């Protein structure tokens, strides 16, 4: 008896516990490629980041300069490759700090409850009421725009959202019978959070991490576009768009390709996240 393609796919899904989705795989490969570019930038980039290689500004795409040149005659490909280190690196560091801190506080508040939960929730609600871009502009303008300050600022802005998301999930898990039994056994707070609450919310939390990574990339690009992000001669992708905006009227590659880089990374993360719940639903249906 032969299996049809859908039936064969279901069998594979049941055997390995997940379906391989072509869109998700392509998105993952794009993300992996940008991560590799960020790590290997000094090896991949054909020219130093600030070297002027062409006397013609906003040069066209050519064999010597595959992505053209910018407003000073610098190689756009090299600038984008080095810019990946700042865009991916700063965003990854910021989302890690924000989500680790937010999730830890959210789970703790849900388990402890009482005044601790109420005070922490009201504090983060107040911070959430401030628009992200305004808060980022105020903090960066007041303190400075060094890379550590950018990371801490972006993390600080997205901790409240991560906290609220993790707390809402943890409150539901905390009401489960197995958590009540663990509490009746006299388990400590650390055990309840680590062994009982975290496994129950890990999947949605990982999806939330991906979404916040996208938000941070876009906010970092906005700050750089306004001149408050990574400072020259270094530049992230948002700064590349800003410094070459004069070439927008005649569609200079120096404006187009950094924008494409931002779009490819953020869209790929979104597509990868969109496919995670689909695999979970497929597994539930097969069961």
Automatic annotation (TrEMBL):
It is found in: Cell membrane. It comes from the Bacteria. It is a multi-pass membrane protein. Pfam families: BPD_transp_1. Residues 84-273 form the ABC transmembrane type-1 domain. The chain crosses the membrane at residues 20-45, 57-74, 86-114, 134-159, 209-230, 250-273. Keywords: Cell membrane, Membrane, Transmembrane, Transmembrane helix, Transport. This is ABC transporter permease.
């Amino acid at each position: 008896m032969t299996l049809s393609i859908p039936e064969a796919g279901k069998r594979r899904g049941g055997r390995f516990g997940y379906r391989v989705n072509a869109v998700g795989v392509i998105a993952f490969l794009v993300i992996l490629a940008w991560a590799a570019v960020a790590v290997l930038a000094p090896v991949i980039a054909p020219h130093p980041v600030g070297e002027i290689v062409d006397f013609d500004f906003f040069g066209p795409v050519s064999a010597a300069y595959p992505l053209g040149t910018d407003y000073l005659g610098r190689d756009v490909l090299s600038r984008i490759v080095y810019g990946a280190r700042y865009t991916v690196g700063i965003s990854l560091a910021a989302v890690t700090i924000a989500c680790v801190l937010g999730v830890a506080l959210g789970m703790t508040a849900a388990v402890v409850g009482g005044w601790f939960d109420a005070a922490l929730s009201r504090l983060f609600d107040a911070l959430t009421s401030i628009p992200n871009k305004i808060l980022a502009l105020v903090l960066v303008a007041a303190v400075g725009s060094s890379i550590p300050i950018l990371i801490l600022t972006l993390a600080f802005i997205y901790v409240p959202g991560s906290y609220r998301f993790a707390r809402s999930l943890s409150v539901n898990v905390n009401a489960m019978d197995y958590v009540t039994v663990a509490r009746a056994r006299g388990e400590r707070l650390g055990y309840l959070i680590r062994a009982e609450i975290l496994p129950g919310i890990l999947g949605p939390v990982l999806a939330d991490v991906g979404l916040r990574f996208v938000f941070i990339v876009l906010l970092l690009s906005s700050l750089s576009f306004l001149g408050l992000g990574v400072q020259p001669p270094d530049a992230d992708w948002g700064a590349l768009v800003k410094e070459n905006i004069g070439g927008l009227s005649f569609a200079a590659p120096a404006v187009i390709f950094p924008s494409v880089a931002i779009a490819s990374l953020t869209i790929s993360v979104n597509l990868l996240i969109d496919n995670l719940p689909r695999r979970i639903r497929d597994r539930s249906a097969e069961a």
